[in-house]
Write a structure and sequence with these properties.
The complex is a heterotrimer of chains A (417), B (270) and C (309). Chain B is mainly alpha-helical. Chain B has 13 helices and no strands. In chain B, helix 2 packs across helix 13. The mean pLDDT of chain C is 85. Chain C is built from 15 helices and two strands. In chain C, helix 5 packs across helix 9, helix 5 packs across helix 12 and helix 9 packs antiparallel against helix 12. Chain C has 309 residues and is mainly alpha-helical. Classes of the chains: A alpha/beta (417), B mainly alpha (270), C mainly alpha (309). Chains B and C meet through helix 1, helix 3, helix 4, helix 5 and helix 7 of B and helix 1, helix 2, helix 5, helix 6 and helix 7 of C.
Chain lengths: 417, 270, 309
C-alpha cells in the first residue's frame, strides 16, 4: 500500500514538475522586477506593465514582491547565485553596499544622454542616490522626517506653536509630561533620530568619512539631556525601544505631545487615532529644518541581460503620468516634481491635513542628514545606536556610551577600508 | 483497575487548557471581528463578528493555487519522510560497525540552523536543477532526524522474539520493516506524519528563497499580502492564519487514536 | 568484511550474511544520509571554510585566517547573544517537565482526553507570525491583556514592562516559546509512552507497587529515549524559534533578546557579513554539539536508548 502511494506521489510530482518549466518558456525579452512590500498596488502595476508592453511588444515582466525583512535575504541569495532581478526597488541606504560592490548599474551615462529625465525629479532627492560621483537609482517614492504635534496638548500646556530650537523642544516636552502623558516621541530605525543630534551641530564622522567625530563634550551634553528627559518622562521611552507599531500607536493614543517621524506615520496614526483632524494635529519641520530622508529607489542590476530595456522600464515607472497615478493611489510623494504637484492637489481635496504632511516632505530638501553614502551603513548603525540606547535609557553614562560607540564605529570603519 | 479521583486531573487539565487557549482565542476572535488589537481596553467578547475576512483571504491571494502547491509539497515531504525515516530508524536498531559514529553524525546534523544554510542550500538545489519546482521545495524536508529517532525508539521497543521469529521464517530485512515493525509502530508513523506535515506546511523561509514564479508559491508566502506595508494587522491576517492552521489540526485529529493505543487505565497515572 | 575478521571465527555462510546485513544497513541509511549531506553537512562545511576567509556575495574570496574568530572575541553582541542562547536552552527542561506531566495526564483514563490533547497541541501548528503578534500584544505595556488583567485586579499600580524591559524581555519570549512548544514535546512523549508495554505496569501493580514507584521505576527509565530527544529538541529550539524572536522583539530591546541564530541571520542578510556569520555559525554548532554530547553521557550513552534485555 505504501509502495503504491509512493509511486503515485512520484508520478504526480514528476508530472507537475514539468508544469512550471513549461510556463516559463523562453520569452523573447524578459524583465524581472523586485519590489519592497507594495503588493497592494497590484492593480496599478498591471496597468503600468500593460502600457509598457504596448511600447515594447513581446516583453514579459516578472513581478516579485517581498516584505522588507525578507527582501535582502532573497536578493542576496539571487546575487550569490548570479540571477538577480533586472530591476530592483531598494529602501533607505542598503543600495550603497550593492552599488559599492558592483551589483548595481551606473545610471549616470543614461542620465547624461537623456538630461530631460533627470530634470523631472527633485534634485536634492535624486542626489541622495549618488555614490562616488555616480548616480545609481531613480526615485520611486520619498519621505523624510518631520515633527507632528498634538495641538490639544500644546494648548493645555500653554504652548503656542511648534518648537524652534532643541531647547524649546525639550522644554515643551517637559511641560506636557504629566502622569501617563509624555512630551516627545521619535522613531529610531534607519537613523531617523539623527536630526536631534544634527540640530546641535554634532557630526557622526569626519568629512573624509574615516573616523568617528561624535565623541565631543557637546555631544555628551546633548545625550545627557536626552537621558534626563527620558528618565523624567518628557521623552517617551518607546522612542528608544520601539519599532513601528509601538511608537506610532502611542502617539495615536493621544497621550504624546510630539512625534518625530516621516510622512508614512501620518496615515498609520490617522487610522488608529480618531481624534486626528486639522485642529488637533499640527505639522512642522523639526528645529533647524534638519530631516533624515527615507526613500525607495529603482536600481538596475549590473548583470542584467537587457540594460537598455531595464532603463526604459524604470523611466516608464517614474514617468510623470504613472508617478502621478502612484502618488494618488498610495498617498505619497514620488520625487517626480510634476507628479507630486498633481498628487498633492488631488490629496488636498479630501485630506487637507495629509496634503500638509506631504508638503513638508518637499520643503527644505537642502537640509538632509542621517544619510551617509557608505557601503557599511548597516554595520555603522549597529555599532552606534545600541550605545546611544544605553545612554538614553540610563544604563551607561553619556561619556562612557560615546567612548564605547566611538571605539565600535572606528572599528567598523577600519574593517571596511 | 485502580480507583483514583478523576477530578484533580480535570481541574489541572482545564487550567492548562485555559492558558493554552487564550492566545488562540484572540487569534480566532480577531479573525471574525477585524478589530484593532492595540485598542485599549481590550474587549473580551467579539463585537459584530462576520466571516468576510475568510472570504477576503480567498480573493486577496491566489489561495487555491497556493493551497494546492502546499498540499503537493507536503504530501511529497511526508511520504518520503515516513519511508526514509523508518528505514534509517530500523538501521539504527541493528548493530553494525560505525553505529556510534552514525548516531553522532545524525545528532550533529540537527545542530545546523537553517538560517546559516540558505545560500549553499540554494546553490545546491540550483545545481540539481530543481529551483522553483515541487521537488526543490520538498527535497530538504525528505528526512528529519527527530523522526528517525522516534522510529528508532519505537523499533527498539519491539520484542526481539518477534523479529527473530520473522527472520527464521525467512523474511528479508525490507519485509521485516513493513510487515513486522511498522504495524507495531503506528504511534511513530502518526507522529512522523503529523510533524512532517506541520514542518512542511508552515515552512516559510525555504519557499521564499527557492521559488520565483507566482504559481509555485506555497501558502505561508501569501502571508506578506496581509501584513500591509504599514504593519497594520487586519482581520484578514488572522483569518489567513486560521485557514493555514486548519489542515494540520485536522490531520492531528485523524491520527489522534494512535496516541492512546496500547495504554490501559492506571498504567500511566503519574 | 571488517566484521568477519574482527571476530574469532565465523563459518563462511554467517560471514557472508553479516556482510550482506552491513550492506543492507547502509542502504537503509543512504537516502537520509544523502539528504543530510546535501542540506546540512555541505552547508556546514561551506560555513566552516567561509569562516576563515573574507567574502561577500559581491566580492571575491580572500584568505583571512583566524581574523573572524578574533573579531568574535571582542564582539560584545556575540557574547550577549551567546548568554541569551544559553538561558534559552536552559529553559527547555522546564517546558519538558510540564509537557511530561501533561502527557501523563492526557493518557490517563479520563473522559475527554482527546479534547484536552487537541487543545494542548493546537498551539504548535499555528503560524509563528500569529503567535508572535498575539504574544507581543499580550505582553504590551500599554494595551496588552496581561497588564489589563493585572491592573483590573489591582495587582499593580503601574503597567509592567515586559518586552520593553531589558530584564523581562527574554523571559517573556521564553514564555511565548514554551506555550508554542508544549504540544510538540507532548506528542513526542506520548509516542514514547506508547512504547512501554502495559503488562509491566500490571505486573508491578499486582506486586503492590504504588503509582509513584511505577512512575519512577518503569515510566522514567523506559522514556529515556523520548526524554533525550526532547532535550535535544529543546536545544534546537534556540534556533528553530527564530521566527518567534525575530517578529516578537527583533532581538531587542538593545540586544536583550538577541539569540545567536538571529545574530547570524542579521550578520548575513542585514550587514552582508557572511564570513563573520559563518564563524559564529561554526562556534554555535560546536557549542550545541558539546551540550548534546554531555547530555548523551548523562543519560547513559547510546543516544539515550534503553538497552534491550
Amino acid at each position: 500500500m505504501k509502495r503504491r502511494t509512493v509511486l503515485q506521489a512520484g508520478l504526480a510530482g514528476a508530472a507537475t514538475l514539468t508544469l512550471p518549466r513549461a510556463s516559463r518558456a523562453q520569452a523573447p525579452r524578459k524583465l524581472s522586477y523586485l519590489t519592497w512590500n507594495i503588493s497592494d498596488q497590484e492593480q496599478l502595476f498591471k496597468e503600468e506593465f500593460a502600457d509598457f508592453r504596448k511600447a515594447n511588444p513581446g516583453v514579459e515582466i516578472e513581478w516579485l514582491d517581498k516584505k522588507g525583512t525578507e527582501l535582502p535575504a532573497f536578493f542576496q541569495t539571487q546575487l550569490a547565485a548570479g540571477t538577480p532581478p533586472d530591476v530592483v526597488d531598494l529602501q533607505g541606504t542598503i543600495w550603497v553596499e550593492y552599488a559599492a560592490n558592483g551589483a548595481l548599474l551606473d545610471l549616470t551615462p543614461y542620465l547624461k544622454k537623456e538630461p530631460e529625465v533627470a530634470k523631472l525629479f527633485n534634485q536634492d532627492y535624486l542626489a541622495s542616490w549618488q555614490y562616488q560621483g555616480k548616480n545609481y537609482m531613480l526615485p520611486f517614492y520619498i519621505a523624510k522626517t518631520l515633527l507632528y504635534y498634538n495641538k490639544t496638548m500644546f494648548k493645555e500646556a500653554g504652548l503656542a506653536g511648534p518648537p524652534q530650537t532643541f531647547d524649546d523642544l525639550l522644554g515643551y516636552a517637559q511641560k506636557m509630561a504629566k502622569g501617563e502623558k509624555t512630551g516627545f516621541l521619535t522613531l529610531n530605525f534607519d537613523w531617523l533620530y539623527w536630526p536631534l543630534f544634527k540640530m546641535n551641530g554634532i557630526e557622526l564622522l569626519t568629512p573624509d568619512l574615516k573616523k568617528a567625530a561624535f565623541n565631543t563634550p557637546a555631544a555628551a551634553s546633548v545625550l545627557e539631556r536626552l537621558a534626563k528627559a527620558t528618565d523624567g518622562g518628557a521623552i517617551n521611552k518607546i522612542s528608544w525601544t520601539g519599532r513601528w507599531v509601538e511608537p506610532n500607536g502611542a502617539f495615536a493614543g493621544n497621550t504624546v505631545g510630539m512625534l518625530h517621524a516621516h510622512s508614512s506615520s501620518y496615515f498609520f496614526v490617522k487610522g488608529q487615532g480618531s481624534w486626528i483632524n486639522e485642529s488637533t494635529l499640527g505639522v512642522a519641520q523639526a528645529p533647524g529644518y534638519w530631516a533624515t530622508p527615507t526613500n525607495h529607489g529603482f536600481g538596475i542590476s549590473k548583470s542584467t541581460k537587457n540594460p537598455d530595456l531595464a532603463w526604459a522600464f524604470i523611466k516608464h515607472l517614474t514617468s510623470t503620468q504613472w508617478a502621478t497615478r502612484f502618488s494618488q493611489s498610495r498617498k505619497l510623494l514620488t520625487g517626480n516634481i510634476a507628479a507630486d504637484r498633481a498628487g498633492l492637489d488631488y490629496l488636498r481635496k479630501d485630506d487637507a491635513l495629509g496634503a500638509q504632511v506631504l508638503q513638508t516632505q518637499l520643503e527644505h530638501t537642502d537640509r538632509f542628514t542621517g544619510n551617509w553614502p557608505l557601503p557599511f551603513d548597516a554595520q555603522l548603525k549597529d555599532a552606534f545606536y545600541p550605545e546611544i540606547q544605553n545612554a538614553v535609557l540610563g544604563r551607561k553614562s553619556a561619556k562612557a556610551a560615546l567612548t564605547d560607540a566611538e571605539r565600535a564605529v572606528n572599528r567598523v570603519v577600519s574593517r571596511n577600508s | 483497575m485502580h480507583r483514583y479521583p478523576r477530578w484533580p486531573i480535570h481541574v489541572a487539565l482545564t487550567g492548562v487548557s485555559f492558558v493554552m487557549l487564550i492566545p488562540f482565542y484572540w487569534v480566532l476572535k480577531t479573525s471574525v471581528t477585524g478589530e484593532n488589537i492595540f485598542a485599549y481596553p481590550p474587549s473580551v467578547l467579539p463585537k459584530a463578528p462576520h466571516p468576510f475576512y475568510y472570504v477576503d483571504v480567498w480573493y486577496y491571494i491566489p489561495f487555491a493555487r497556493y493551497f494546492l502547491n502546499s498540499v503537493v509539497v507536503s504530501a511529497l515531504a511526508v511520504a518520503a519522510n515516513v519511508i526514509f525515516n523508518a528505514m534509517a530508524g530500523y538501521a539504527l536498531t541493528r548493530d553494525f560497525p560505525a553505529k556510534r559514529f552514525v548516531l553522532l553524525l545524525f545528532l550533529s546534523c540537527m545542530m545546523v540552523p537553517f538560517q546559516a544554510t540558505i545560500i549553499p542550500a540554494y546553490l545546491i538545489t540550483g545545481r540539481l536543477g530543481l529551483l522553483d519546482s515541487y521537488w526543490g521545495l520538498a527535497l530538504p524536508q525528505f528526512s528529519t532526524i527527530v523522526c528517525i529517532f522516534v522510529f528508532k525508539a519505537s523499533f527498539d521497543a519491539v520484542p526481539r522474539s518477534l523479529i527473530d521469529a520473522a527472520r527464521i521464517d525467512g523474511l528479508s530485512e525490507w519485509r521485516i520493516i513493513w510487515r513486522v515493525m511498522m504495524p507495531l509502530a503506528k504511534g511513530a508513523i502518526a507522529t512522523n506524519v503529523i510533524l512532517g506535515f506541520i514542518w512542511s506546511w508552515n515552512n516559510f523561509l525555504w519557499p521564499l528563497i527557492v521559488t520565483r514564479s507566482a504559481e509555485m508559491q506555497t501558502l505561508p508566502l501569501g502571508l506578506a499580502r496581509f501584513l500591509s506595508y504599514q504593519e497594520d494587522t487586519t482581520g484578514a491576517l488572522y483569518a489567513f492564519c486560521i485557514m493555514v492552521l486548519a489542515p494540520g489540526i485536522l490531520l492531528f485529529l485523524m491520527a489522534q487514536k494512535e496516541f492512546i493505543r496500547g495504554l490501559t487505565s492506571g498504567a500511566t497515572k503519574g | 568484511m571488517a566484521t568477519a575478521s574482527a571476530v574469532a571465527y565465523r563459518p563462511p555462510r554467517v560471514a557472508r550474511r553479516r556482510t550482506r546485513q552491513a550492506v543492507l544497513v547502509w542502504c537503509f541509511l543512504a537516502p537520509s544520509l544523502a539528504i543530510f549531506l546535501l542540506y546540512r553537512i555541505v552547508p556546514l562545511l561551506w560555513n566552516a571554510v567561509l569562516s576563515f576567509t573574507q567574502w561577500s556575495p559581491l566580492r571575491a574570496m580572500r584568505w583571512a585566517g583566524l581574523d573572524q574568530y578574533e573579531d568574535m572575541l571582542h564582539d560584545d553582541v556575540f557574547w550577549q547573544a551567546l548568554w541569551n542562547t544559553l538561558i534559552f536552552i536552559a529553559s527547555a527542561p522546564v517546558a519538558i517537565a510540564i509537557a511530561l506531566g501533561l502527557a501523563l495526564l492526557v493518557s490517563s483514563d479520563i473522559r475527554g482526553r482527546d479534547v484536552y490533547r487537541t487543545i494542548i497541541f493546537i498551539s504548535y501548528p499555528l503560524m509563528t507570525v500569529a503567535v508572535a503578534i498575539i504574544w507581543r500584544w499580550l505582553f504590551d505595556e500599554r494595551v496588552g491583556l496581561i497588564n489589563y488583567v493585572a491592573r483590573s485586579l489591582h495587582l499593580v499600580d503601574r503597567p509592567i514592562q515586559f518586552l520593553d524591559s531589558f530584564v523581562w524581555a527574554l523571559p517573556s519570549v521564553i514564555v511565548a516559546n514554551i506555550w508554542q512548544m508544549l504540544g510538540f514535546y507532548m506528542i513526542i512523549l506520548l509516542t514514547g509512552l506508547q512504547n512501554i508495554p502495559p503488562n509491566l505496569y500490571e505486573a508491578a501493580a499486582i506486586d503492590g507497587a504504588s503509582a509513584y514507584r511505577r512512575f519512577l521505576r518503569i515510566t522514567v527509565p523506559l522514556l529515556k529515549p523520548s526524554l533525550f530527544l526532547c532535550i535535544v529538541i529543546g536545544m534546537l529550539n534556540s534556533f528553530t524559534s527564530f521566527d518567534l524572536v525575530y517578529v516578537m522583539t527583533g532581538g531587542g530591546p538593545g540586544r536583550a533578546t538577541e539569540l545567536l541564530v538571529t545574530y547570524i541571520y542579521k550578520l548575513g542578510f542585514s550587514q552582508t557579513r557572511f564570513d563573520y556569520a559563518a564563524a559564529v555559525t561554526v562556534v554555535f554548532f560546536l557549542l550545541l554539539v558539546s551540550i548534546a554530547w554531555m547530555a548523551n553521557r548523562l543519560s547513559g550513552g547510546n543516544v539515550g536508548a534503553v538497552e534491550r534485555d
